[in-house]
Amino acid sequence: MPGGWNRGKTISDWNKRVFDLTGGRFRLIDHELLSSGEQRLLVKCMSCGSEKSVSSISLRNGGIKCTPCQMEATRRRHEADKEIREWRKNYERGLTLIQMEMNFCRCGRLLPFGFKVCEECKAEVRRKNDRRKEHRRRARERQDFDKTITLEALYERDHGVCYLCNKTCDWSDFQRINGNFIVGGSYPTVEHVKALCHGGTHSWDNVKLACHTCNSKKGRKENFEIPLG
Predict the structure, then answer these.
(1) Is there a contact between 64 and 19 (Cβ–Cβ < 8 Å)?
(2) Same domain flag for 176 and 219
(3) By Cβ atoms counted within 10 A, which residue in 66, 168, 195, 197 is the most buried?
(4) pLDDT digits (tens, 9 = 90+) for 143-169
(5) Domain range for residue 175?
(6) 71-89 per-position pLDDT tens digit
(7) What is the dihedral sign for C-alpha 46, 47, 50, 52?
(8) Does residue 184 register a pLDDT over 50?
(9) What single string gives the DSSP state of each residue in 30-57?
């Protein structure tokens, strides 16, 4: 006598068993008892109508799957993914075209077409240039302005060593881009120990050689030291 969980099942019991274990996706057509006590079931897919032969063990383990339905679901999923990829490509292409037509200033503000700098940045550049010109004018008008101070003479006096970082300055650390002379970090500069805006003088006892990097970091600060590391 067959044993196990399928013992004593009738045809009506198998119909209900197939319906419950497959969630109503399959319907029982026929079943056959094998010599091993296992039931061989012929089921029909309720979606596509295809028939399939499965064992009662596969039914119990929930392993009944319809191959045509799986292939159709995979095809639909691939088509949906393809549509999504195509939509995303068109969206990114349209977004890139919009960004190419838009013009931004270096500060991040949106500019009208044909403009390169916003009015706020222009005003800030003008204020800095006016302030720099005013400092130079006041320095020239003072009687303690020493006209003999040159970068070459200062480089020779200080032996080409920056007094802040103690590194040798490099005359060749520059480049020309579109006719503009752009210095590098180690290019020598004239540094006022006490800034002119704080009452310092343009005299030999108030100027020292400094590389461009240290001069930029010091700025108007007093008692400035390069941090270690």
Answers:
(1) no
(2) yes
(3) 66
(4) 667 788 899 999 999 999 999 899 999
(5) 146-229
(6) 888 888 888 888 888 887 7
(7) negative
(8) yes
(9) EEEE-TTSPEEEEEEETTT--EEEEEHH
